Amino acid sequence: MKLTKRLQTIADLVGDVSKIYDVGCDHAYLDIYLASKGIKCVAIDVRNQIVKFAQKNVDESGYQDKIDVVLNNGLNGFKVDKEELVIMSGLGTRTILDIIKNQPVNRLIIQSNDNLFLLRKNMMNQNYYISDEKIVFEDNKYYVIIKFESGFKEYTDYELLLGPKLLHQNTDVFTQYLRSMLSHYRDVLLAVPANYLERRIAIEQIIKYIEMALR
């Protein structure tokens, strides 16, 4: 099965594990690909129709013995062993953090749809460090994919905003991502009234960090 660039990047970060939990599995394409590599998968989604589509795809793939498709809210009711991996892709940061709060795990791959600073900071505060990060551009959108593992490492606000691993990757995609962010926050700053001083200072600091990364 040929995956999209985003899903292939997630798959490449999985590494040597025997079982994964894919929360927000969508059509289970990632799970089918991983099952073809010998990895057991639990494909989880909270949407009934999506679970039906996922089950149909799994049945047609022939990997029913390696993939369990489950209608479930996050990881509720599951006990994830320390050697197993959780994948959460396409969810919002607050939803992801709620799931992790209710079920701490050792290793995760996360692709959040929003607020990566909040995600990285909260994960750091919950004693996770970033072992790898990737960025891809697909369908006119940037996707940042982060691998977290259990263990504390402190990061600066600069690293939390832009990614401690990404900052060491001199790629065209990351440069374009930074330029896109810079344009966005400059527009945001123009829209903030002069009397909203704290908000303006915070945005100006973000702009400085992005400009620093682009040097």
Outline the structure in words.
With about 220 residues, this protein is of the alpha/beta class. It folds into 2 domains: about 5-160, Vaccinia Virus protein VP39 (Rossmann fold, 3-Layer(aba) Sandwich), CATH 3.40.50; about 170-215. Helices cover about 45% and strands about 25% of the residues. A 7-stranded mixed sheet has the order 3-2-1-4-5-7-6, with helices on both faces. Helix 1 crosses helix 2 (about 30-35) and helix 4 packs parallel to helix 5 (about 115-125). The chain is elongated.
What is the strand and helix layout of this fold?
Layout: H1 5-14, E1 19-23, H2 29-36, E2 40-45, H3 48-61, E3 67-71, E4 85-91, H4 93-102, E5 107-112, H5 116-125, E6 128-138, E7 141-150, H6 157-162, H7 172-191, H8 197-214
Supply the number of helical segments. 8
Q: Please trace the helix and strand order, writing H or E for each element.
A: HEHEHEEHEHEEHHH
Return the structural class. Answer: alpha/beta
CATH superfamily of the largest domain: Vaccinia Virus protein VP39
Estimate nothing, just give the exact number of structural domains. Answer: 2
Assigned CATH architecture of the largest domain:
3-Layer(aba) Sandwich
What does the overall shape look like? elongated
Q: How much β-strand is present in the residues? A: 15-25%
Strand order of the largest sheet: 3-2-1-4-5-7-6
Sketch the major β-sheet: 7 strands, mixed
Terminal residue distance: 40 Å
